[in-house]
Amino acid sequence: MEQLFTNWPWWLGGLALGGCAVGFLKVTGMPLGVSRSYGRLADAMVDRESAARESALSDSEALEAALRAATAAEFGEAALSEHEQASQREGASQPQQQSKPTGLVPWTAHVAFVLMVIVGGAVTALLRGGWKPVFDLGPEHTAIFGGGIGLAVTLFVAGTLVGFGTRMGAGCTSGHGLSGCSRGQLGSMVGTASFFAAGVAVSFLLGALV
Amino acid sequence: MKAIHFKMGLFGLLLGIALSSIGFTDFGEIHSMFKFQEARLFLTYGLGIGVAAVGFLVLRQARQMRPRPLHRGTIAGGLIFGAGWAITGACPAGALAQLGEGRVVAVFTVLGVVAGAWLYPVVHARFFRWPMAVCEA
C-alpha cells in the first residue's frame, strides 16, 4: 500500500493531473486554478474588514454629529437647516441596496476546495500506512535551511513570494500550466517558462551556497 | 452549502491525493527536478498538460475559458513565484497537500501564500500603473 501512493510513475501522475484539470472544468464550469482560490480568500478577508468598518460607521451617532458639524463649518448653519426642511418635504430617500458581483462562485466554495486539498494530503498519508506529524520538509530541505524559528520565517517569507508572484503573474502551476499551456495561451506559456526558470536558477544557487 | 461546495471539494480531494502521491509535495523531488537530476516530475507535468489539452479538445470546452494573454506582470510574477517554489518545495496547491500529509511547518508556507495574495493588490494599487490581471485560470 505504501508503494502504491508514493512517487507515482510519470504516466500515472500525468493522467491524474490532466484528469483533475479536465474533470474540474467539466464539473464546475471553471478552469482549475489554485492561486485564484488564495486570491478569493485574501479578498474575502479584506471585504469582511471593510464591511465591519462600514457598519460601525453607520451605527454611530457620533458620525452624524461630526458630519453636521463639518457641514455647518463649511456652509453655515443656515444652509443646514434649509437642507433639512427640504429633505423633510421630499421624504428621506432610502439608501439603495448594493448589487453583488455576479458570475463568481461564493468564496466559501474556495474554502471547501482548499480544505479538501489538505484532506487529500492527509488521506494519502493514511493510505501509505499512517499519518504522523513531522516538523521538517525532509533531509534535503533541512540540510539547506535548518530548522526551528529560522525555518518558520524562511517558509513564511518564501510562501509570501509564492502568493505575491502567482497573483502578479495571474496564474500558478495549475492555472497557467494545466489550464493555460494546454490551450496554447501565450501568457501561460511565458508565465510557466518564467516560474520554471526561476525555480532552476534558485535551486542551483542554493546548491552552490550549501 | 451548495452543490458547488461539494463539486470543488471533491476535486480538491482528488488533486490533494494526486499531488501527494506524485511527490509534488516532496521538497527532495522538486529540488532534483529543478537541478535536472530527475526527469520524472518534468514528464509528469508535461503529460498532465498534454492530457488536459486533449481533454479540452474532446470536450470542446477550450473556447469557454477566457484567453490568458501576456501582460506586464507575467514574467516578473512568474520569476517571484518560481523563487518561492524552489525554497518551499510547494506550489500553491502543494503547500496545502504538504500540510495535510503532516508536514506541520507547511502551515507557515500556506500563511505566507495567503499573505502574498493579500499583499499584491495593495502593492499594485500603490506602485503599478497597468490594469491588474486576474487569474481566471
Q: How would you summarize what this structure contains?
A:
Chain A is mainly α and 210 residues long. Helices cover 73% and strands 0% of the residues of chain A. Chain A has helices at residues 10-28, 34-59, 61-75, 77-90, 107-127, 139-145, 148-168, 173-178, 186-209.
Write the SSE topology.
The complex is a heterodimer of chains A (210) and B (137).
Chain A: H1 10-28, H2 34-59, H3 61-75, H4 77-90, H5 107-127, H6 139-145, H7 148-168, H8 173-178, H9 186-209
Chain B: H1 3-22, H2 27-34, H3 40-59, H4 74-88, H5 92-101, H6 106-127
| Oligomer state of the chains in this structure | heterodimer
Helical percentage of chain B: 55-70%
The average pLDDT of chain B is 95
The proportion of residues in beta strands of chain B is under 5%
Count of helical stretches of chain A:
9
- Helix/strand-derived class of chain B? mainly alpha
Mean pLDDT over all positions of chain A: 85
3D architecture notes:
The complex is a heterodimer of chains A (210) and B (137). Chain A has 9 helices and no strands. Chain A has 210 residues and is mainly α. Chain A has a domain at 33-96 and 107-133. Chain B has 137 residues and is an all-alpha fold. Chain B has one domain (3-127). Chain B is built from 6 helices and no strands. Chain B has helices spanning 3-22, 27-34, 40-59, 74-88, 92-101, 106-127. In chain B, helix 5 runs antiparallel to helix 6 (106-127). Chain B is globular. The interface between A and B is large, with 124 and 114 residues.
Labels describing this entry:
heterodimer, A: 210 residues, mainly alpha, 9 helices, 73% helix, B: 137 residues, 6 helices, 0% strand
